Prior knowledge:
- The protein is of the alpha/beta class.
- The protein folds into 2 domains: 5-63 and 368-419, Roll (Urease, subunit C, domain 1); 64-364, Alpha-Beta Barrel (TIM Barrel), CATH 3.20.20.140.
- It is 38% helix and 24% strand.
- It is built from 14 helices and 17 strands.
- Strands 3-2-1-4-15-16-17 form a 7-stranded mixed β-sheet. It has a 4-stranded parallel β-sheet with strand order 5-6-7-9. A 4-stranded parallel β-sheet has the order 11-12-13-14.
- α2 runs parallel beside α3 (133-146), α4 runs parallel beside α5 (203-215) and α11 (323-340) packs across α12.
- The longest helix has 18 residues, at 323-340.
- It is globular, with a radius of gyration of 21 Å.
- It binds zinc ion.
- InterPro entries: Amidohydro-rel (IPR006680), Guanine_deaminase (IPR014311), Metal-dep_hydrolase_composite (IPR011059), Metal_Hydrolase (IPR032466), Metallo-dep_hydrolases (IPR051607).
Amino acid sequence: MNKDVFAVKGNIVFTPGPEGFTLHQESYLIVERGVVREICRSLPAEYAACRVEDYGDRLIIPGFVDLHTHASQFNQRGLGLDLQLLEWLNEYTFKEEARFAARDYAAAAYQAFAAEIVRQGTTRVVVFATIHKESSELLFNILARKGIGAYVGKVNMDRNCPDDLREETEQSLRDTEEIIRRWQDHPLVKPVITPRFAPTSTEKLLRGLGALAVRYNLPVQSHLSENQAEVRWVAELFPAQAEYHKVYDSFQLFGQTPTVMAHCIYLTAEAVQHMKMAQVMAVHCPDSNLNLASGIMPVRKMLAAGVPVGLGTDIGAGQSLFMPATIVSAIQLSKLYYVMQPECKPLTLSEAFYMATKGGGRFFGAVGSFEPGYSFDALIVDDRAEHARGRSLLERLQQFIYTGNAADIAERYIAGRKITV
Ligand SMILES: [Zn+2]
């Protein structure tokens, strides 16, 4: 028997689509070279000799995909959240990010971040570092050593930020390209083009970043329409562009290559339509939007328009890296929105779970599901002590999402490899 093949046995739960969960009680999931081959009730004869990890009555669910977060803000979680976005950036975030010029500070913060996302059950992450080339590469290295799947962005900023974070435009592009060359072929940890957001970028910088994205066929991440003062500021800074998203689009940073845009709260119908046409992914970050009083993303409208939507923790504006908490916040916020706008039905648990797994996972390819051909990224959830008393599988999943925590996660797999905390 090929030693690249093994099986896990347990209660398998996942969302092939947003409309509902697929449940396989006491079943085998066959993994071959890190990829899901099939799920079956008994082990087929051809796999009779393969290694079986028997998880008994535990749950086996896809690992979570955090589509937007800031590793460099790990140490500032919970700080300054009486402020709104632009003041919070100046008073807290820029000061914190400036500390990443020091290699030792960055190494300690990024190691703590990587350990924490593994502990919390995140298996794939799209993440911002800072402007600093050396410490950004530390983050690549730390995530790669842990075996976490990631897109890591060295941040680019060349205006409207403190002197110690303002890059010289050409140097910013050169540093970015150097990192691209070193990391573009890594199997798990890859570069993503990362203008912080339009206001901290000159047109020259955005043009250069768009050219790099297209030349190296790299994905793009940034922020879009998070806060009303920000939206007004972008209109002042880029008077030639009719709308915020057009700033990115005019520099090849909006769907010319796979793109994720965090927040997307104040978009016109035309902008939403543009996102659908270009298949730009919107990242809903409910905790962050609540903490900074930014607003509520109209998720139901985005979904109805055909825009792909994922979920992000967005620390440090968000307070927690535990994706089930983000799932719950997204559902709760959608219910509040529904009370104000009854035509927008609340998110269901399966819809929000899908966003946190297969929905966000599409940014990484075949990730976030247990259908054949998907990367075996999985969590073994051990809820037996508290929750298994006569509950159905679906009820057990509901209780894990709403009342569980990292201590309930017994094992983590990424691309078929067991990851240690
Ligand atoms: Zn963010």
